[in-house]
Structures are given as structure tokens and as C-alpha cells.
Amino acid sequence: AQKKSERHAELKKKHEQHKVERMQKYQGVNLYVKNLDESVDDEALKKQFENFGNITSAKVMTDENGRSKGFGFVCFEKPEEATTAVTEMNSKMVCSKPLYVALAQRKEDRRAQLASQYMQRLASMRMHSNVPGGGMYNPAQTGPGYYVANPMQQQRNFAGGPQIARPGGGRWGQQNQYP
User: Fold this and answer.
1) Which residues, in sequence order, are bridge partners of residue 59?
2) Residue 154: which H helix or E strand, with range?
């Protein structure tokens, strides 16, 4: 006999332990395959990857109606086989669609990786931008005879809408109009 909280804690501990064991077991052998054609099923997916080694499982993810969601997983016996499959099958055309193949990751790990990549890209863009305002406006990029309004120079008219400041003063509808 156990208290509910004790039983809950014990089951949670077992579940976490099982999850960690499963992650370690399939680390480096489970592949994520994206951009699958709707006609590809489990057997067709397995056939595409069987040249690279022994496959323990191949599964195309489907919705509640049984239609393909466009991605799936292929699990190999050895990490070397999975690595070979990734290098050979990534960007390979299957049913007129290029496959995306990578090692499978947990959702939390993938999100953390993408977030760090985003932050690095954002930091490098800021470092390489020598134009105030993040490089949104560069008059040298416009061709001769064209004027691109800088959003920082916008003014407001009486109705509250934006009124673009133009070279030479004046506003649209006033005397010295530009073509």
C-alpha cells in the first residue's frame, strides 16, 4: 500500500528512466525524413533506405484519416548505416520531391538548437551592419531618378496618416510636384 503521491513519484521516475534509456538506445540510428510525397507509405519508405543497412523500423506519420503528414522516421541497427543514409539520401529526388534527411532529435532539443542558431544569426547581422537602423535604408542602392522614402523621415498630416518627406520640401498635392 502506497500513498497516491508516493506512487505518482515512483511512476514518474520510472517513466523518465525509460525515456532516457530509449533516447540513448536510438541516439545516432534514428533518422527524420521530411518532404515525403503523399503516395509514400511505410513499405516504400523502407525500400528507399534498405540499401544502407538493416532497418529496424520505418514509419510514415499519418493524420487521423490515414493521410500522410509528409514526414517519417527510419531506424537503423548501427550508427554508421544511419550516417551513410543521411549523406546519400539528403536532397535526393523521390517522387519528384527532394528529401530532407537528418538524425532525429527530441522536439525540445531541436527548438533549443534553432533558437541558438537564430540568436547567432541575429547577432552577426547586427555586427556586420554599419548603417544606423540595421541597414534598412541605403540611398546608394537606389537607381538614378528614383527616391525611396526613409521610414525615419515620415511625417504626419492632419488626418494622422503618414506623409512622406521629399527632397526639396513640399508634399504631394502642393506646387513643386515631382513626376
Assistant:
1) 73
2) strand 154-156
User: Which amino acid would we find at residue 162?
Assistant: P
What is the predicted pLDDT for the residue at 109? 82
d(CA 104, CA 52): 17
- Determine phi and psi for 20, rounding to 5 degrees: -65, -45
pLDDT tens by residue, 41-92? 889 889 989 899 889 989 999 999 988 898 999 999 888 888 898 888 888 8
Domains detected in the chain: 10-109 (3.30.70.330)
Instruction: Give the up-direction half-sphere exposure of residue 100: CA atoms within 13 A in the CB hemisphere.
Output: 5
What does the alpha-carbon distance between residue 93 and residue 77 come to, in Å, rounded to a whole number? Answer: 25
Short-list 76, 98, 77, CA closest to 89: 98
CA atoms of 82 and 74, how far apart (whole Å): 9
- Report CA-CA distances (Å) from 64 to 67, 69, 71, 130, 140: 8, 10, 15, 52, 55
